[in-house]
Amino acid sequence: MTPVDRTTDIPALPKQAGQANVPGIRRLWLVEDRHVLGVVDPRTQPGTLTSWSLPEGGLTLIDGEAFPYVALTCRAALGTYNQRTVASVQGVGYAQTVGITLPRYHPQTQLVLARIMGRRWVAVIQDANDLGHLISLPQYPLRFEAAFGANPSSFNLVGSTLTPQPALGFSDFWLFENAGAEFSYAFSDEFNS
Questions:
Q1: Which domain of life is it from (predicted)?
Q2: Is residue 192 part of a domain?
Q3: What's the helix, strand, coil split of the chain in %, to 5?
């Protein structure tokens, strides 16, 4: 179905006075693009377009609840997400960049990063305000680079892509809670972690 521009009916933004706006991301879920069957474009849904969010069940994954994924959890200060509008000959695009810092060196972390860098990913983030965002699509997957620095000892993992639309709001976190992660990484800020 062809997307329809219905942006003239956007309601006024709700008042947000007194609400905290915490920077950074808390979680990053990565699903290989080949495991994604489809993503519903909110512009193709009937009725008035009131938000740039996936409808419930708008992300369809292969094999129901048995798909492999990577889950990375961090302190909000160590995860970043940026979306930048860029102009090109094809029109307006959105440069999506997500970064996460994995503290300390471990040989297994190096192995996992090599696996992440060798694949094409559809990514969902949960920001520090507990809002979800689908930041890449199967046709426009994230690709990652990693770098290690010894001061402080950490890996910096950065993924980027260029998409024809901005990130979509996402609320179906239960997709990941009901499936088994291929790899999950969470760390503590404790001195003796």
A1: Bacteria
A2: no
A3: 15, 40, 45
Q: Tokens 């990053």 identify what position?
A: 28
Compute CA distances 159 → 19, 65, 84, 162, whole Å: 29, 25, 14, 11
User: Which range of residues forms the domain containing residue 63?
Assistant: 23-186
pTM: 0.80
- At 181, is the pLDDT very low, low, confident or very high (cuts 50, 70, 90)? low
Domain presence at residue 64: yes
Number of domains in the chain: 1
Is residue 107 assigned to a domain?
yes
Please give the torsion angle defined by the CA atoms of residues 140, 114, 123 and 44, in that order, rounded to the nearest 10 degrees: 30
Torsion of the alpha carbons at 86, 43, 41 and 135, rounded to the nearest 10: 40
Q: Which amino acid is at 56?
A: E
Q: Which helix (H) or strand (E) holds 72?
A: strand 70-73
Which two three-digit tokens encode residue 136? 């890449």
Q: Output the six-digit token pair for 18.
A: 């007194």
- The rounded distance, in Å, linking the Cα atoms of 131 and 107 is 33
